[in-house]
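ingest -> validate -> predict -> emit
validate: passed (alphabet ok, no gaps, 86 aa)
predict: started
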Amino acid sequence: KEARCCVLGHLQRGGAPTTLDRILGTRFGVKAVQLANEGHFGSMVSYQNYQVRQVPIAEAVNRLKLVPPNGEMVQTAGDVDISFGD
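emit:
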């Protein structure tokens, strides 16, 4: 038998990428290359309000986005056996 490597990515999230996934990935890539060509380093590409835009890394990591440990998302993850190391 032959063994193959499988990168879970989209498979893990439920299947093949949609057209929107592909378009958004392309838009992110184009914007990232534009920023690099213009010398805008230390930034990331973000999708906000239907726009792809540059966000300084410092701005992106400077704020915490907390997830309540007893919130619906964590409970749902637990219901499908996703572990957060607890």
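Residues 22 and 50 are 15 Å apart (CA to CA).
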